[in-house]
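Just wondering, can you check both lines?
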Amino acid sequence: MPKSKRDKKISLTKTTRKGLQWKQQIVEDIRNCVSKYPNIFMFSVQNMRNNLLKELRQEWKKNSRFIFGKNRIMQLGLGKSESDEPEVDLHKLAKRIHGQCGLLFTERSKDEVVEWSQNYTALEYARSGFVATETVVLPEGPMEDFSHAIEPHLRALGLPTKLEKGIVTLYKEHTVCVEGKPLTPEQARYLKLENESKLGSDFKVGNELKLGSDLKLENESKLGRDLKLENESKLGSDLKVGNELKLGSDLKFGNELKSVNEILKLIAKPMATFNLEIKCCWTKDGGFESIVEDETATDSGNAEGEDMDQEEADEDMSDNDE
């Protein structure tokens, strides 16, 4: 049956569409950064988290800038060919843009950026679809970390729980997840809930914490009675942090500042790792350089896909808000 010309699709969303002006702005930002910063890095992202990316932007904002956008739009900003690239060999960098990736414009040297990316990882709560790294089994008995008000929610997540004298109790052993199998949404929510429930009036870290090499205290005069150390002669059987302790520059694990939530993630169950991998770079002094070989592209595939990408990019730039 032929399509009726009178049928019109009416969108009920109040979100404004990102049209031609928004795409042109990304291209303009990339061109401005090319002239401003001497080094450009293309990186891939695993387990993208907006909150962690925001922290990276703050950390690098003095002499660098991260740019994300549609891959075809970023390619247009760098130049798809030698004729439209703003600098020599930038089109080679544009050809490597595929998958979930971004651009880093910076004044820092190549060695410094590559070393940073190799050492940088951040733990985040696992989400549905993440493959469990260990089997988590809950024993039968009381679950004192949870409030009685959350017991119905635990049952909704599939846990065999009941209330006994106002205490959430697991009336039989329950396997939350199995190593090697992907997490369901319910399993991921419970694992996050379990770790967050450990933030009560006191936060305890067991014998695994070794004070001395791992824990550095600064501005001890400000800690006062908020920080209580037990078995100080052994340096670290238990560490209790009260409600009033504000983690600023006072508590450090190694050289890295950790908040309470970040400390929880150190002892969490299956976690996801957020990291950046530098694929290639371009410098004003040395031009284009590949750091990790591009395994997804072939010579024939590049030749066929190049024209297709150019046509799709042209269509993107010709879109309007109508």
Observations:
- Residues 210-269 form one domain.
- The first strand starts at residue 39 and ends at 46.
- The radius of gyration is 26 Å.
